[in-house]
Amino acid sequence: MSTAGFNSQNGTGTGQTYTNGPSQNPVALQQPSGVGYSVNHQPAYNQMQAKVLAPPGPALYPSGPYQPVPPGPQVGSYPPAPAQPLLPRPQIGILPSHTPPQSASPSPGPRPAQATPPAQATPPPPAVTSTSYYTGPPAWQYAAPRGPAPNHVNPAAAAPPLMSHSSTQPPGPGAPPTSIHGFTQPGSAPPPMNPLPPHTYQPNRPAYGPPPTMKPTAPPAGPPGTTGTPPPPKADDVAGNGPQAPNSYNHVDNRMAGAAPPGRHLGHYPSLPPGYQNTSAPPPSSLHPALQAATQPYTQGPQPYQQQPGGPGPGPGPGAGPAQLSPSMAAMSLQSSTPEALRVVNLLQERNLLPPAPVPAPTPCLTQDLQKLNCSPEVFRCTLTSIPQTQSVLNKAKLPLGLLLHPFKDLSQLPVVTSSTIVRCRSCRTYINPFVSFLDQRRWKCNLCYRVNDVPEEFMYNPVSRSYGEPHKRPEVQNATIEFIAPSEYMLRPPQPAVYLFVLDVSHNAVETGYLSVFCQSLLDNISALPGDSRTKVGFITFDSTIHFYNLQEGLSQPQMLIVSDIEDIFLPTPDSLLVNLNECKELVQDLLKSLPNLFEKTMETQSALGSALQAAFKLLSPTGGRMSVFQTQLPNLGVGALQSREDPNQRASAKDVQHLSPATDFYKKLALDCSGQQVAVDLFLLSAQYCDLATLGCISRYSAGSVYYYPSYHHQHNPAQVERFQRDLKRYLTRKIGFEAVMRIRCTKGLSIHTFHGNFFVRSTDLLSLPNVNPDAGFAVQMSIEENLDDMQVVSFQAALLYTSSKGERRIRVHTMCLPVVSSLSDVFAGADVQAITGLLACMAVDRSVTSSLSDARDAMTNAAIDSLSSYRQSALTIQQPGLLAPACLRLFPLYILALLKQKAFRTGTSTRLDERVFAMYQLKYQPLAFAMLMIHPALYRLDDLSDEGALNIGEQTIPQPRVLQLSVEKLSREGAFLLDAGLVMYLWIGRNCHQNFLSQVLGVSSYAAVPEKLYLLPELDTAESQRTRAFVSWLRDQRPFFPSLHIIRDESQLKPHFLQNMIEDRTESALSYYEFLLHLQQQISK
Ligand SMILES: [Zn+2]
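Above: query sequence and zinc ion SMILES. Below: predicted holo C-alpha cells.
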C-alpha cells in the first residue's frame, strides 16, 4: 500500500496524484509505523535499471602505453616534428573534426586528431550519456516514460496564458500580415504589408535574428495541427519545452566518451635541455634559502622574457609605441584591424600575462544596444562569446562550447513582475525577453524558435511608464534578468512551506569535535532569521548507533526524546509531532538546542548509523518536501549504508592513478533520488579528521541538489580557523535565501543543443533539472553542440528559467536571457573565447573524466585541450606564421590555467592529497559559480606590506586598497614582505623572515618576526592606518563570496608553508613542471 503511494508520487501515477502536501497525502500519513517505505524496496528501480551503459572510456579511446617523448627543443629553435606513433588519445568534449585540410603536414605523423575514422564520425548509439555525475547509471535519471513528470503543475498550465481579451486571435494560415486591430502608434510606420524581411518594431534596436525565409506572413510555426491552438499541455511544461522527448537519452550523445579521435598519448613531459635546468644563480631578490630550494625560478634562456617598459604589466597593450614592438606586435601591425583579443602573443616571450586586477569576463561582440540589454556575466556566461556558425568551425577551434550559470545568485537589483499573463512563445515556451523582435505592436517573434506570437492585450499596458501601446518598453523586454510571481496555473498544490530538518551525529567522535555546541548556538542565534513564514516547520533527529527523535509538540513542558534502536526497519514513533511549526513551538525548540550539547556529553557510543538516520529523515520529510541538513563526523559503520575505509594513506602521493573516486555503494544515490522525488534536498556537513568516503556520502547531496561542506580536521580547540569558518558558513547557510520544489530549464536558439549538465541536481528530462532546493550559492554548467548550421543568424540566445517556491510560499520564475553573436570565421571564434569560462567548463568535464575513466586520462585530456586549441589557432587562424608558442591575447592565460588545474588538489599527482580532500575539490569545481571556482584553480597573490590608497576603492566610508595581482611564483615573494594568497576557501598570509618592522608592529601588533605566534588566524584590530588598510582589504575579499575563507597567518618556518607554496603554480615542484617547462612541452607537441 505504501509503496503504491510513493510510486505514484514518483511519477508513475496519472500525474494528478502528486499531491504530497501534509493534508493531501493520506497514504503517507496513515501508513503504519514500521512497515512504511523501505529504500531497499526494489520495484521502483527496476525499470530504470533496464538501461544499459555502454562501456566507459577505455573501450572507446584506449589509453596507449606511455611513449617516451624526446627531450625538449632548445628555446627558439623549431625542431622538425619527430614521427610519433599514432596512439589513441583522450580528448575533452570536442567532437572529432571533419578533417579540415591540413595546411602543412611536415612529418609523416600529421596531427592524428584530424583524421576521424568513419566509424566515429557519427555519435555512438544511444545509451551513453554523461549527464550524470558518475559513469553511474544515467538510469538514475527518471526518464519520463511512466507518466507526466511531476511538478505540481496543473496540466492546464501549459496552455498559453489566458488572454484577457479574446479578440486577439492568432493569425491562422493566410491571415493578413498586418495587425488586425489597426492600432498604430502615432508617428510610427504602418505595419508591414509585404512578406519581406521582418520589420523590427523597436526603433532603437537593430533588426537581427532569424533566417530570412521566415516571413511575417507565414503561419505560426508550430507542430502540425497546432496553428491557432496551443499545443497540448505537458505536466512540466511550465518551465517546459513543449513536447518532451520520449527518450531523452537518444538525443544526448556523449561527446566526452564517445567521439574521441585517435591521437598521441601524452603521458609524459619532456625533460629540459641542460641549459634550462635552473642552473643560473637565484634571482637577486633576497629569497629565503628554503624558498629557493623549494622552487626553481625561471632562468635566462636564449630568448629572455621581454620586460615591458614600465616594469611588470599585462604585456604590451594597444598603446605600446612602435618603438617597443615585440615580434608579435610587429605581426599585429600587419594585421592592422586585429582586435586586442586576437593580438598574437608569444607565450615563451611574454612573461607578465596576468592583468593587475582579476580577469574580467569578455564582452560579446554585439551592438551597444544589445549589449546594454544583455545578461550579466556573473549570472550567465558562455565559453565562446562568439558562437561558431557550424559544428565544423567549432571542431576546428578545439575549444569546448558550454554555458556557466549562477542562476539564483543574490542580486542587489531584480525586477519582479506580478502579472496574470506571463508572455511566452506558444511553440517553444520561451519567456518573452529583450532579444525577441516585434513585428508590429501586436506580434512578436520568438528569438529561439522564430515563431510569431501574438502580444496579449494585457501586455500592451506598461505598468512602469503607465502608458499604453508600447509593448517593447515592458520590463520583460527591457531586462535580461527578471522574476515573475507566477499565477495559480503554475502550481498544482499550495506551495510547500519552508521545512527544515536537522540530522545530527552525536556519537563519541562527534561530541569530541565540539561541533554540536557550535551548531546549536548558531541555530539559536539565527532561528528568527530562518527564511520562512507562519507555516515554517522544523524538526531534529540525532543518531549514533540508534536513532533519536524529538517530540516538540505544542503543550509539552519540555522536548521529549524518543529512541528507536531498530535501525534495520526504521519507523517514526510519533509522526505528527516531530516536525513542528516553528512559531508555535519556538520555546521547545530553543530548549532542545540549549540542552542537546549536554545531553550527549558523556557518550561512549562510537558507532554511526547514518544510513538509517537518513532513511528516518526522508520519511519525516516526504509528505511536505523541504531541506535536510546532515552533520556527520565519521565513516558510517552500522546498518544500511555502512562503509569501510577505502583509502590507503601510503598511496596518497605515490599512486599513479587515484582509486575510489566513485561511490562504494549506490545506497546514498538511491536515497538522494527518492529525496528528489519528494522535493527533499540533503545538505551534508562533513566534519572529520578521518577518511569519511566523501565520494560515496556526497551522492546524497549531489543528486538531491544539496550542498556539501567539508571541514577536515575540525576540532573545537585544535583548529580554531575551521571553527570560525564553520560558524560563518552556518550563519550564511541558515539565513540565505532558499527556493523549494524548483525546476530549471535551459533553452537555446534552434540549431544549438544542450547536453551534459554539471552541478548538483537530477536531470529529469533532456533539459529539465530537478532542484528540490535551490540556493543562491549554487553554480551550474552545461555543454552544447551545434546541431544545425546557424548560417543565416546574426545572433543566438540562451534562456534559463528557474521555477521555484519562495520561503514565503510564492511560486516564482526567475528568467535569465543571454544573446551572443554568431560568427563564421575561426579567427572570430577565437576572438570571442572566454578563457575563464573555458577553464571552468574543462574542469567540470575533467572531474567527470576522472571518475568515469581515470585521473591520468583527465589530466591528459586537459593538457590536450591546450595543445589542440593553440595548435588549431596556429594552423588555421594565424595569417602570418612566426616562431614561438603563439596564442591569441584572449587565450594567453589558457596554458597557465591548464597547468593550474593539473596542480589543483582535485587533479594533482605526486603530492600527498587526502582522498576526501580531492573529492571535495572535485565537488567544488562542479558546483561553485565560476568566479569562485577560478580562485580555487588560480589563486590570487597580493603583497600586503606596502598597501597604499592609490587606486583604492571607496565603498561607503571605507577605503579598500587594491594591490595588484602577482604571478604565482616565489620569484614574486621577498623576505622583506608579507604576501596574501587567496585560494578561495582558504587564505594564507605569509610573513617573510625579514618582514618590515613597520608591518609587524602596525598590522600584526608584534615587536619582531620571532614574536609572530605559530598559529595565528586573525588580524588584530589595531588603531593604525596600516592595520585598517590590511583588514579592510581582507574583509573586502571575504565579502565577495558567500562562504568564509579561513585565514592562516604563517611564518616562513610554519608547518603550513608547504600548503602555501603548493599554490605557486608557475614554479617547478618535484612532481610537476614549472610554467615555462609546461609551455615548452606544449610548444613541442604543437610543432610536431
Ligand atoms: Zn519559441
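The chain is about 25% helix and 15% strand.
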